[in-house]
Amino acid sequence: MQAKKRYLILFSAGVSLILLLYLQGPASRRTPNRGDDPHPHWPHFSDPLRAFIPWDQTETEDYNVRVSPRHKRDDNSGASKCRMDSCFDFSLCRRNGFKVYVYPQQKGEKISESYQNILSSIEGSRFYTSDPGQACLFVLNLDTLDRDQLSPQYVHNLKTKIQNLNLWNNGRNHLIFNLYSGTWPDYTEDLGFDIGQAMLAKASISTENFRPNFDISIPLFSKDHPRTGGERGYLKYNTIPPFRKYVLVFKGKRYLTGIGSDTRNALYHIHNAEDVVLLTTCKHGKDWQKHKDARCDKDNAEYDRYNYKEMLHNSTFCLVPRGRRLGSFRFLEALQIPSTVRSIHQDRILSLRQQTQFLWEAYFSSVEKIVLTTLEIIQDRVLQHNARSTLMWNRLPGGLFTLPQYSSYLGDFPFFYAVLGVKPQQKFTAVIHAVTPLVSQSQPIFKLLVAVAKSQYCAQIIVLWNCDKPLPAKHRWPATSVPVIVIEGESKVMSSRFLPYDNIRTDAILSLDEDTVLSTTEVDFAFTVWQSFPERIVGYPARSHFWDSNKERWGYTSKWTNDYSMVLTGAAFYHRYYNYLYTQYLPGSLKSMVDQLSNCEDILMNFLVSAVTKMPPIKVTQKKQYKETMMGQTSRASRWADPDHFAQRQTCMNKFTSWFGTMPLVHSQMRLDPVLFKDQVSILRKKYRDIERL
């Protein structure tokens, strides 16, 4: 098991570095009406990484100049193998989109924990369908992960079982997951059955068997790899210079005979026990002493003196030499490795370190992320007109949170503004969530409408009517200088306030509860702040979360403290893309919970945005009377005072954390006030002077 863990960490690091070097894509096109000032929210590196060349672009003149004749021969030799256009039925995907069907488990069939995690990740995703008639892709209920005949997880008679499946169709539109294939001593990639025209998502697949733009190469992971969430990377500060105690490390088995022995046996040539520490042990297998050589005792003793995790955390680079199951490439130019890694400039080391952490957190830190990344890659191949660009895959927040169905232009996503050097639009749409009948002109919603409409940045106001009473007559609403559009909420449920309505054409949304009390000045200032942080939630009422060690669960608090982790959407700005992501990305189970409780929709939106950005929301200046004013309104007083309402929010916190697999909320102590706020100077010198009078 320890060997598998070490293999996973090293292989994941290798995959990250490979992706880092080959998947960095070019910037997207610009639109001139967005402005030219950059937003430096994420670091920009002067030494960009080389772009990845997709397999479908290998016929270009530029590719032919850079690729060796041997690689060209390898590409051409696979021309008769499966490709999407020859072994995949696209018509199944045109009817219902990209839906994935998992065969029901057959009685008596055992499934490993790892394979069950894969199936659970699919069944919990937005791609899943229980109806095979709606499916575009099919996944077996038979465990194909471990095809080593000596393994206790090996499933016998798999060939017959697969051929008896009614929907198999020679594997067409099927996806097979595999981690281990073949067995000692040659470790071939034979799975023990004919995959036919099925796609293969496989770890350590060789270049000879890999079918470009059809198969998926996935990292090897152990049964202990978390199903959801996963640990964050260890890079917390951009330390300059980025050098660590060791330049290059490795710790693993030294195979004395057979496949992989030549590679691992060569490591001692560059081990110096100072900044290059490459440790191997001969203790592998029951009969290792029969093959023991003169170096074994010394190697074994030195191997035991070092802690593996300590080495990883304190090394600039980690070496990933081939072992038993990796592809058949030779270990070349071993003596040049130290000089190569020492020649890399510190700026590039920091860039590599940041990118590998991003790739780990975005795609590899859990089984769910590995599975969803696999499905998203296949979806991009199926729906090529909506495929992600390389920039979407290789920039924060990553491909899983960047849905190309929303837009093909990167400038429509808030987290790409800094990369493209564009700004959000200078106007916002206010969306007021109304649940109370109109009975008096003194109701808070009328005052709120007038105050928001006076904002110089307001383009329009949408009243989302989620009240059980019919829509009020048009003359009941106050006259304003901006359009007021009243629409009925879909099914009158809470989640309808976050639907991506076509009426919303501005980048910014000001989300408001009907009893919110805000002045025009407060609206203007909050919007000005949001323009500098368009990827985050910016607003007034703040809340926080905490870990309750007695109950061993997450807690929710509305106490006034020095920090916060949520800004409630009762009075907050956010980008309209998050409405689309809330609707399309989150599972129906969480949205149904919100709708049944008529509660927690604001918490769920905060979870989502923090999961995307890995950052806290932004709290702006707020009068302390806000809380008491909210409590005093008749329309929602019972809701806020109801103890069940507060208990429900505690439950929501833990339910949401369970689905995300981790706690995405981030604490912050930052509050943004206007310049000269509360300073002892003339009020006439202050731009947002009215805020201090409130």
TrEMBL record:
Residues 428-677 form the Glycosyl transferase domain. Residues 95-336 form the Exostosin GT47 domain. InterPro entries: Exostosin (IPR004263), Exostosin_GT47 (IPR040911), GT64_dom (IPR015338), Nucleotide-diphossugar_trans (IPR029044). Pathway: Protein modification; protein glycosylation. Glycosyltransferase required for the biosynthesis of heparan-sulfate. One of its GO terms (cellular component) is Golgi apparatus. It is a single-pass type II membrane protein. GO terms for biological process: heparan sulfate proteoglycan biosynthetic process; ossification. Its main location: endoplasmic reticulum. Its cofactor is Mn(2+). Keywords: Disulfide bond, Endoplasmic reticulum, Glycoprotein, Glycosyltransferase, Manganese, Membrane, Metal-binding, Signal-anchor, Transferase, Transmembrane, Transmembrane helix. It catalyses: 3-O-{[(1->4)-beta-D-GlcA-(1->4)-alpha-D-GlcNAc](n)-(1->4)-beta-D-GlcA-(1->3)-beta-D-Gal-(1->3)-beta-D-Gal-(1->4)-beta-D-Xyl}-L-seryl-[protein] + UDP-N-acetyl-alpha-D-glucosamine = 3-O-{alpha-D-GlcNAc-[(1->4)-beta-D-GlcA-(1->4)-alpha-D-GlcNAc](n)-(1->4)-beta-D-GlcA-(1->3)-beta-D-Gal-(1->3)-beta-D-Gal-(1->4)-beta-D-Xyl}-L-seryl-[protein] + UDP + H(+); 3-O-{alpha-D-GlcNAc-[(1->4)-beta-D-GlcA-(1->4)-alpha-D-GlcNAc](n)-(1->4)-beta-D-GlcA-(1->3)-beta-D-Gal-(1->3)-beta-D-Gal-(1->4)-beta-D-Xyl}-L-seryl-[protein] + UDP-alpha-D-glucuronate = 3-O-{[(1->4)-beta-D-GlcA-(1->4)-alpha-D-GlcNAc](n+1)-(1->4)-beta-D-GlcA-(1->3)-beta-D-Gal-(1->3)-beta-D-Gal-(1->4)-beta-D-Xyl}-L-seryl-[protein] + UDP + H(+). GO terms for molecular function: glucuronosyl-N-acetylglucosaminyl-proteoglycan 4-alpha-N-acetylglucosaminyltransferase activity; metal ion binding; N-acetylglucosaminyl-proteoglycan 4-beta-glucuronosyltransferase activity. It comes from the Eukaryota. It is found in: Endoplasmic reticulum membrane. This is Exostosin glycosyltransferase 1a. SUPFAM superfamilies: Nucleotide-diphospho-sugar transferases. Transmembrane segments: none annotated. Belongs to the glycosyltransferase 47 family.
